[in-house]
């Protein structure tokens, strides 16, 4: 006694849809982490070179920037680059995925 009953919206978008959304969210987060790590490495190099060079060449910097201050400058730049790029990447990926879902619904 098989009945052909149309599936409701909730049944059609059940666990499979939830698993798909979780997989998209994990991939989105992973892309953000990778992009943020790349940005942090570049920002570390870009801030370490002038910071360390200025401490060796400029008398004011030599007198006022001890090793803790140098590390704080470099790590602050790297941390802020990581979080900014990771956040932008996650938001861009989520936006792209939401537009994919919207175009599938409209079709």
TrEMBL record:
Pfam families: ENOD93
PANTHER family: EARLY NODULIN-93
Descriptive protein name: Early nodulin-93-like
Organism: Nelumbo nucifera
Gene encoding the protein: LOC104592369
């Amino acid at each position: 006694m098989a009945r052909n009953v149309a599936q409701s919206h909730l049944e059609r978008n059940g666990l499979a849809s939830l698993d798909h959304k979780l997989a998209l969210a994990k991939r989105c987060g992973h892309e953000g982490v990778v992009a943020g790590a790349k940005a942090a490495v570049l920002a570390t190099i870009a801030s370490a070179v002038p910071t360390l060079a200025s401490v060796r060449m400029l008398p004011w910097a030599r007198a006022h920037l001890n090793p803790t201050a140098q590390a704080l400058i470099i790590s602050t730049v790297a941390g802020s680059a990581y979080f900014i790029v990771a956040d932008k990447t996650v938001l861009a990926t989520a936006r792209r995925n939401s537009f994919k879902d919207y175009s599938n619904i409209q079709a």
